[in-house]
Amino acid sequence: ASKVYKYHVDANKGGFTDDYVGLVEGNKNIRYPSFQKEYGETNLVLEGVTTNTKVNIDYGKIGTYNGKKVNIKLVLSNIHLYSDTLPWNLLDNNYTKTHFRDDGYKNTNGAMSKSKKRTVLWISDNLFSGIVYHSTQMNVQLVATYEDGSPVQFSGDTFISFNSLNPAGGKSTDLKGEYAHYDKMNTTDWYVRKDTVLSEFKSFYNNLNVVGGHPGGSSKLTQADNDFNNLHDKLGDPKFGQGTVSFKISEANPTFVIGSSNVQTWFTLSSATIFSVVPDQPEKTGVDKNGNNVNDKMLQVGDTIQYRIKQKVNRLGVDLLAVYDRFELIDNLPKEVNYVDAHVESGTNKKFDVSGEVTYDKTKHQVKYAAKADTLKNRMKYNGETYELVINVKVNELANQNSVAKNQGTSIINKVEKDTNIITVYFPKIPVKEVQQNGKDVNGRNDGKKGTPTAPLNAGSEVQYLVTQKWHTKGVDAASDHYKQFSIQDPIEARLTYKE
């Protein structure tokens, strides 16, 4: 471009205004409303735009691929301005002239001044919060590199989605809805939802096959189109994916084309897909009162255990387009422990759950956290955070009858159910003590029929006490093939004399 105006609006600063000329003139208090306020944005005013104009947007290290950090850039190029071709009365799209201070073509301060070959870009600091442009078609290249500068070769397990693709705002057949194209879309898979409001048509420039909102001149927009535009075109809405197309990527630096004849077009690019996102595997841990791991350890009656079920959530706009409609953490407790209490934690919030979300079913011996609708919609951040169901229990007398207790939790997100790892604790086998005389059981001095007492032992009589401790078996009722410590003790009454 021959001239560039650039300025930044910090997070939670500025406000939306329709004064586009003020934007051109450098009003630094203008914010596009669809960008989440917690993100800053950079506003670019470009003059002398040609197909050779290029805009590089560096978002920094904002993601990972195969466990490695990656740097993300977007390169905007091959920019075509609809104002070069279409008359103003089509592009005005029912906006009053005051939006652009009279004719946007002739007014040299107009945001879409034809004489100045001017356009405006509103670029959020957050990739997934999107970019706004005016009546333009351009290439968008996604450049992902590792920390050493080498390119990320996507291997077919990655989907790039273009969201919020709205229909054209006018009836002229020259107008196009907001659309997206992938230069490999004729040879690779791409997807839309069954209830999509998108269609296939040709781009305004270059006659490309594109997917987007209905073009101008289409049959009257359906109720689904109107509902999407007015009700659901918001990140996190359950039907936001109706305006999304997802492309399967199997290369480095993929190139896309976006375009729209609409004035003020918001588009978002993300790695979120229209599919049901598979959540991370939930994790189960168990600790004693001192915070020590109890898995594969030996406990006894009266000991306390704190079970924790951890579930990391997806990131809205990154790998998730809509908030969850169900989020549950469930623990069926072993019978060898008694329930004490439970709550949910998230980060520094040690009491995230609200009344009624955590319940204990005594009959099932089951603890459940079921997030309420308000929690799913408004309280969960969906920024990759972790939620933990924390359950305090106490080992009961049944541990004396059983030598092992296994515990596994479950998480349910939407329709996806996953089990945690298993926490195993062991209990010592109860030793058996006998007292015999001449090979007969004399417990209670009973050498006759069972339950029939006889005369007490006389002074000088000898008896034999026998204490039997059954050994544990590795993998069955113990984690190790040997004990760290083993002893048998038997205190002798004062009236008895130890012999051997």
CATH class of the largest domain: Mainly Beta
Structural class: mainly beta
> What is the percentage of strand-forming residues?
35-45%
In DSSP terms (H or I, runs of 4 or more residues), the helix count works out at 4
How would a crystallographer describe the biggest sheet?
A: 8 strands, antiparallel
Poorly predicted ranges (pLDDT <50, ≥5 residues)?
93-105
* Shape by Cα distribution: elongated
The gist of it:
This protein is mainly beta and 500 residues long.
Please give the structural blueprint.
Elements: E1 3-9, H1 20-24, E2 41-47, E3 55-65, E4 68-81, H2 88-91, E5 119-124, E6 131-133, E7 136-146, E8 158-163, E9 179-182, E10 190-191, E11 198-202, E12 209-213, H3 223-232, E13 245-249, E14 255-260, E15 265-270, E16 283-287, E17 297-298, E18 304-312, E19 327-332, E20 337-345, E21 358-361, E22 366-370, H4 373-379, E23 386-395, E24 404-413, E25 416-426, E26 432-437, E27 440-441, E28 464-468
Parallel strand pairs: 17-25
Antiparallel strand pairs: 1-2, 2-5, 3-4, 4-7, 5-6, 6-15, 7-14, 8-13, 8-15, 9-12, 9-14, 10-13, 11-12, 16-18, 18-23, 19-22, 19-24, 20-23, 21-22, 24-25, 26-27, 26-28
What key attributes describe this structure?
single chain; 500 residues; mainly beta; Major cell-surface adhesin PAc; Immunoglobulin-like; eight-stranded antiparallel β-sheet; seven-stranded antiparallel β-sheet; 28 strands; 5% helix; elongated; Fim_isopep_form_D2_dom; Pilus assembly protein; Adh_isopep-form_adh_dom
Explain this structure to me?
- Pfam families: AgI_II_C2.
- Residues 437-457 are annotated as: Disordered.
- InterPro entries: Adh_isopep-form_adh_dom (IPR026345), Fim_isopep_form_D2_dom (IPR026466).
- This protein has 500 residues and is mainly beta.
- It folds into three domains: 3-270, Major cell-surface adhesin PAc (Sandwich), CATH 2.60.530.10; 283-426, Immunoglobulin-like, CATH 2.60.40.740; 431-500, no CATH class.
- The protein is 5% helix and 36% strand.
- It contains four helices and 28 strands.
- The radius of gyration is 35 Å and the shape is elongated.
- The N and C termini lie far apart (103 Å).
